[in-house]
Structure formats: C-alpha cells, structure tokens
Amino acid sequence: MADLLIITHEHIGPRMAGPGIRAWEIARALARSGWEVRLATPYAETFGEGSLSVVDFTWEDPVSLERWLESARAVMTTGPVLSRVVHWLRKPLDHPTIVDLYYVPEIEIVLLSHTQKPFFLIDLLIEETLVYLRNGDFFLYATERQRDFWLGALWMAGRLNDRMLAVDPERWMAWVPMGIPDDPPHRGKRVLKGVVPGIQPEDKVVLWMGGIWEWTDPITLGEAMERILVHHPEVRLVFGAAQHYDERVVPPMSRASQFLRWCQEKGWLGRYVFFLDWVPYEQRGLYLLEADVGISLHDHPLESRYAVRARSLDYLWASLPCVLSAGDELADLLRAYGLARVVPPRNPCAVADALLSWLENPPSREQLAQQTLPLRDRLRWSAVVRPIESFLREPRTAPDASYARRKISHWIGLRVENDRLRMENEGLRVENDRLRAESAALLAYLEAARRGRIVRTLNRIYQIWGRKFL
User: Fold this and answer.
1) Tens digits of per-residue pLDDT, 60-119?
2) Conformational region of residue 194, where left means phi above 0, alpha means psi within -120 to 50, and beta covers everything else
3) Statement to judge: residues 368 and 450 lie in one domain
C-alpha cells in the first residue's frame, strides 16, 4: 500500500518539462523522507529509486490506473489531470486528494487555442475547473498571487463554506512552491564552449533554458542581440529547445516557428543562435555552470502574473546571473537577492543593457551563491514538501467532501446523459441520412424508368387504350 500516488500526464525520465519535474522531485523528496510513493505516468522511462516507484498507465484503459488507485492511501495530481481522471472513471475519487494548483493552466490553454469558438472553450474550462476544485481535500499553491486567485475560484466552486472555514486553513491549503535540488550542481565535462559547432571556448553564452512557448518573447531577445553583437560579436545565444519534445503532450508553438524564420532570414542559425535538443534533466547543471548569463522573456501580463518559471529556478540553483521579464513573483524575488536584472516586456534596449551589464562586469558565482543562500535554503525540495508530509501523516477528506463530491456525481450524471442523447441524435441523423439517400435513389430510379424505352412502349400501348402508365 503506497502512502501517496502521484499522477502526472508528463514524461518521467531523462527529458522532463515543468509539470514532470515537479511531480518527480516532490515524489523523490517524499521517498527520501521514508514515505512509500508511486508516481504514475503514461510515459514511464525510469523505474524510480528507493521507496519511489514509477509506474505506468494508459488513458485508453481505466483499469491500468484503477489498480494503482486501489493500493494508495492518498492521491496527488494537478487539476486538469484530476478532471480527466474523474471523467474517465465516471466517478469522483474517494481518496484523500491533494490538488496541485502550482500553475494556472486555463490561461495557457486559452493562449494556445486556435479554436473558432473561444467562448465554448472557456465554458468547458470552467466546468473542468469546478470538477477538480470539488474533488480536492488539500490544495497546493506556489505564490501568494496564486493563493488569491484560487481562493476566488474555490469560492465559485462552493468550497468556501461554513464547514471549510470552521477549521484551520492550513488543513486544506498550503504554500508549496516550485523547488530546487538540495545539492548544488557540479562541474564536469564541457557541453557548450568548444563543443557545439559555432561556439568557441572564448565566446560568451546567453542561455535560455527550456523551450519557446506562446507567451514567451524570443523576438525581443533577438532584437536585443542585434544591439549586443555590434560591440560584442563573441556573444552566442543558446536555447535549451525550440519546442516540447513530445507533440502529444504539448502542441507546436507558433512563436517558436516565427523566431526560427526570423533567425533564418538573418543567417543567424548556427552562427549566433543555437538550439539544443532539450537538455537532459540530470545534465542541466553542466549547461548552467558553463553559461555566462541566463535569460527568460515573456510578454503576456495575465500569464506572467500567476506564472512559476521552473527554468528561472534553475538559474537560482546554479547561481547564474540572469535577465528576466517583469511581471511574475519569482522575477521580483531573484532581483531582490541580486541574481536578476528585471526588464519591461517588449523592450529590446532594456534587455540589451541588462545583458551587457552582466557580460561586461561578470559577478562572482561564489558571491552570488552566498547572497542567495537564504532563498535557496527556503526552496530546497526537502523543505517545500513539508506541508505534504503533514497531510500524509493524517490523510483525510475535507469537512465538506461529501457535499462537494455529490456535486461532481451530479455533473457526471448530466455528462453521461448528454453523451447518451448525443449518441441517440447521431443515430437518428445517420438513419435520416440513410432514408433520404434511399428516397433519392428511388426517385432517380423512377425518373430513369419513366424516361426509359420500356416505359415509353408501355405508355404507347396505354395511350391506345386511352390511359397512361406513368
């Protein structure tokens, strides 16, 4: 029997994106504290370690996940994954359930959507959000802004009621930020300078960890590079990737293709701009330690307000000076500790000036490590998982769980009935189409027969008799 089953939709293995990294690191930190943890994923590429086991399931077969649910005392997952599981199983989870609200995926989904019916999409997102907020017993947020956002959402879901407010809020909501490994990265073999064709040992590397998403702003960085290269032609811009490594998980982004075309038109690819094929998670420290400056630029104010930049935390982990767009809490925090220059969105001059301030006057990594030590201690994975450990010592459903889950059961019943009616309507439509086609064929046959030679002969005979056949 596992103390906790963590369910993720992302890959767990050599290459991982933000949600997968968070699920893996939380699971690993809990296992190192002695908890029995299972991490379930459709893309299991490792077996786990110690009391952490990585298990697989498929979305096509509910039984493949139910077996892991049956042997778990508590469950943890992100909101959208929980909604998908509930809809898939056609019932709410009755386990004590931790809902990880560390990011606001609904904003990202709307930004990624190219649908012709955006309001239909928003209505659907609201339905799915209500489902996972009503199935949760313990909610995790990563920033204070997120806490306010999700408290408003919980109010709309009916969860801020007299039963919930009568108990200590820490029993059902806690701050669990995105974390960093307990141990600092270690230097090893070179992976960039003198290794990647086009990057010389003496060059300066500006590193953009991760990929290019719809809310990121690589064009502004490109325009800033035009200014930088005038005075420093030895600067190279390296991206961890252009797109997510699996289109089944994250679709291709138009911003990435736009920036690639922009670089191609300037002849920069392989000369000043380089794309890696998604840095392996366990090797990312080598890239961070070899880079001179880290960078991450974003230009959507609403996404930025609630965002958690996992890659910016990599810069903190490696004490890498960085340039970040203003707007998110982490950027402000890293600026307060002297690790980041924060720039206004869509301002290439400000980006160029900030990068040059680091490149021309490089700070000591040791000094940055010393001044950010208090922040790094707060954000170590072994520290940030403590609220989860407190919940696991006494896993329990929320005071209003029976009421909230009945709401989900009612919603599921409506969805099932809607699906049944839709299938019936589809069957009627198919039958109507069949009858219409048969009628058209019969009319065509009669018309052809009326015009045919046999009918003309019969009509001639009937005319002699004074009647008409057709």
Assistant:
1) 998 999 999 999 999 999 999 999 999 888 899 999 999 999 988 888 887 776 544 566
2) left
3) no
**Does a structural domain hold residue 322?**
yes
For residue 385, give Cα distances in angstroms to 23, 356, 388: 11, 38, 5
Which residue is associated with the tokens 């649908």? 115
User: Which token pair is 115?
Assistant: 């649908």
Q: Is residue 134 part of a domain?
A: yes
CB 351 within 8 A of CB 292: no
Phi, psi (rounded to 5 degrees) for 294? -100, 155
DSSP string computed for 287-316: HHHH-SEEEE-B--HHHHHH---HHHHHHH
Q: Provide the 3-class DSSP secondary structure of residue 24.
A: helix
| Same structural domain, 168 and 76 | yes
Residue 302, domain CATH: 3.40.50.2000
Cα 108 to chain centroid, rounded: 8
Q: For residue 92, is it within any domain?
A: yes
Q: How many domains does the chain have?
A: 3
| H or E segment and range at residue 208 | strand 204-208
Phi, psi of 298 (to 5 degrees): -140, 155
Helix ranges (DSSP H) in 10-117: 18-32, 63-70, 79-89, 105-112
Largest CA distance in the chain: 116
* Beta bridge mates, 139: 99, 173
DSSP summary character for residue 210: S
Query: Is the alpha carbon torsion for 215, 285, 11, 141 positive or negative?
Result: negative
Of 212, 233, 179, 195, nearest in space to 379 by CA: 179
Which among 204, 210, 225 has a CA at the least distance from the CA of 256?
Answer: 210
Query: Whole-model pTM?
Result: 0.87
Residue 470 lies in a domain: no
* Calculated CA dihedral for residues 275, 277, 278, 279, nearest 10 degrees: -90
pLDDT digits (tens, 9 = 90+) for 2-41: 999 999 999 999 999 999 999 999 999 999 999 999 999 9
Alpha-carbon distance of 230 to 227, in angstroms, equals 6
Looking at this protein, which amino acid is placed at residue 188?
G
Classified as helix, coil or strand, 390 is: helix
Nearest alpha carbon to residue 176 among 365, 378, 344:
378
Q: Confirm if 314 and 209 have CB atoms less than 8 A apart.
A: yes
Q: CB of 305 within 8 A of CB of 343?
A: no
The DSSP bridge pattern shows strands 48-49 and 52-56 to be antiparallel
Domain containing residue 236: 204-379
